[in-house]
Amino acid sequence: MGELFRSEEMTLAQLFLQSEAAYCCVSELGELGKVQFRDLNPDVNVFQRKFVNEVRRCEEMDRKLRFVEKEIKKASIPILDTGENPEVPFPRDMIDLEANFEKIENELKEINTNQEALKRNFLELTELKYILRKTQQFFDEAQFHHHQQMADPDLLEESSSLLEPSEIGRGAPLRLGFVAGVINRERIPTFERMLWRVCRGNVFLRQAEIENPLEDPVTSDSVHKSVFIIFFQGDQLKNRVKKICEGFRASLYPCPETPQERKEMAAGVNTRIDDLQMVLNQTEDHRQRVLQAAAKTIRVWFIKVRKMKAIYHTLNLCNIDVTQKCLIAEVWCPVADLDSIQFALRRGTEHSGSTVPSILNRMQTNQTPPTYNKTNKFTYGFQNLVDAYGISTYREINPAPYTIITFPFLFAVMFGDFGHGILMTLFAVWMVIRESRILSQKTDNELFNMVFSGRYIILLMGAFSIYTGLIYNDCFSKALNIFGSSWSVRPMFTSPKANWTEDLLRHVPVLQLDPDVNGVFNGPYPFGIDPIWSIATNKLTFLNSYKMKMSVVVGIIHMLFGVTLSLLNHIYFKKPLNIYLGFIPEMIFMASLFGYLVILVLYKWCAYDAATSKSAPSLLIHFINMFLFNYTDKSLPMLYSGQKGLQCFLVVCAILCVPWMLVVKPFILRHQYLRRKHLGTHNFGGIRVGNGPTEEDAEIIQHDQLSMHSEEGEEFNFGDVVVHQAIHTIEYCLGCISNTASYLRLWALSLAHAQLSEVLWTMVMHLGLNVKNLGGGILLVFVFAAFSTLTIAILLIMEGLSAFLHALRLHWVEFQNKFFGGTGFKFLPFSFETIREGRFDD
């Protein structure tokens, strides 16, 4: 746990890798995941780097695998994920992988092309089958009308257009032509209107819906279509009709004129459809076999290809020496992991078969290293809360270990409810117990993943809420009477006031209770708030006073702790000026004013008991008078003897701290700068890491020193220092007041949560409990369901999120601004972990 309090010590190191061993060494470093490579070719175009062709080949293999994966998903075949971590293929294996993927891709493309052609052919034959069937029905109807017309001459004109062309030719001078086809059903109304307008009503259209939807050969979607037949006279109308059909993307098919020919054609079409269906089934079976075989290994292939791509991308960050036999890389790495990095390089050299060992050489630099905070599954969530605001400056105090306790506690102060705390804890315990199963499922639900990653935060928030709920004696807005009340709630005849008659209890709505000072119960309520307050009319007055004072006490202690942590930073970075001219006056200023307020609150709680509470003076008036030096009001009793002298002394100390912080430091810094300048010495600041410079590094270090400067460096500007110090002082002094007021949100949110909980009980649950018969029992089932739903939705989720955000703000702003710079940048090691977990974004 020691490494959690401060980020890991980092060093810059040079790697000298033999060309034949570089690939295997980088592969081993990727498996280890402890080094961050620096780009040594920032000015070189990405297309001009040495391994750009290998990266392209990997990207092409990745594209082919994505195509195969898309086909597998389209076929609804599950992709097997065994959690296997395959080794990185050697560069010589790339040709075999490329050939394998090429073969699978071409086979799938060929199958898809053939299948599409077969499906198109099948669709055309199916449409033709329906055309033959429907047109036969049209002509059968026409034949029926023709026989009717023999009996009734008035029908002659109407039926002539429906007669078969052969019969029309024999019985009438007219000869009608016709075309038959298939069109999408939704286009029929527009199609019909267009035909009518263009042909001026000189065509006759009959259409019938195809009952079964047809499959589109390209998209495989179901399409509803209709068969139509259009009768017309003359070539001019024929051309118009065909152009309109073409415009509406209707498929026209040849349709024989005689019933015998139609019958023969239909039989041939049905035979061909049966044959084609058999071929289609065989093609689909073959496609399924190919995809099922690929689905078993596609995850392993993805990992292999993307590991290779990551390695070549990393090798492009390295420099190649003039002999072309050695690659030079620069990496940031934790000092504690140098041995494991050496072992990884040794393993990589052995795997490659190289006889020349890889060299790791530590460098000294003035550049600020990246910040690396080691985490485990418990601390990961809390570290993320801190990092969301800003990455810690290198080696400064990390707020995460303190946040593990203070964050859930401040949340629980606002969310204090025994019942809600139990529900939240049970949910978190469920996630913790099933965490291995949930992790193996790899759900894509982003909201659930976010909640799951903070499962230990939720667990502690729930546990602390149970504790504060017991302190507030609040469980779903009801009090728990565990130890019995410490007020005279029963007529014990210990005093005249206790002689309450039955008539008095029935008719008087409000009764005043006295504390049971000398009665059956000894002293105050043993733990938390007395349950009698839950039915008191002045409950809010009492709880507001208690929670407001408690919020101020907790807030000031939290801020004083933050100022104390800044001392550890100053000691570690060896900045005595910041201790004497920063930390000490800051601590005196806050402790003399607001620390004294905390002592006053605690003193008043202890000094006044139930018997003397009515004579207790107001702390607010005392605190205001302390700043105004106003002690003339004799009606306001003092809390203790010597109060006036002590308070005057504390205010004077606080006032003196302001120039102490504001003026002294800039002048001392100016004096130090002038002295160094006079002596001709230059002190280059910054953070030094490593084990001392070597002769080869002298030029690099000199360059780094010239490019870096700290507040004590050569470019000293007195005006800038004065302005910066003035801003810091004003911000701190005003912040002490505003930040203390900001902690009152603990009281406000706690009050809001308790009142919402009470309203929900009164307006929902009370309905079911008021009915005293059997119907009330049945009603209570539905009322409780509504109560449970609203409790989870409003009080647990909405109120929980609100309290979470306010606790987060108190940490980010009020607590961390006392000691946290947050100007660092995160250590991002080259690691295959993200590829193994399935997050393939490079």
Mind describing the biggest β-sheet? 5 strands, antiparallel
Computed structural class: alpha+beta
Shape: flat
Radius of gyration: 43 Å
Q: What is the overall pLDDT average?
A: 84
Q: What count of helical segments does DSSP give? A: 27
Distance between the termini: 32 Å
Q: What is the β-strand count?
A: 11
Strand content: 5-15%
Unreliable parts: 151-173, 492-497, 681-713
- As a percent range, the share of helical residues equals 55-70%
Oligomer: single chain
What can be said about this structure in brief?
With 842 residues, the protein is α+β, with helices and mostly antiparallel strands. The chain is 60% helix and 7% strand. Strands 1, 2, 9, 10 and 11 form a five-stranded antiparallel β-sheet that branches. The chain has a four-stranded antiparallel β-sheet with strand order 4-7-3-8, sandwiched between helices.
Description:
The chain is an alpha+beta fold and 842 residues long. Among the domains are: 130-273, Alpha-Beta Plaits; 400-481 and 744-815, no CATH class; 544-689 and 717-741, no CATH class. It is 60% helix and 7% strand. The strands form three sheets. Strands 1, 2, 9, 10 and 11 form a five-stranded antiparallel sheet that branches. It has a four-stranded antiparallel sheet with strand order 4-7-3-8, with helices on both faces. A hairpin with a 6-residue loop joins strand 5 (214-215) and strand 6 (222-223). Helix 18 (539-572) runs antiparallel to helix 24 and helix 19 (576-607) packs antiparallel against helix 21. The longest helix is centred in the N-terminal third of the chain and has 58 residues, at 94-151. The protein starts with a helix and ends in a 6-residue tail after the last helix.
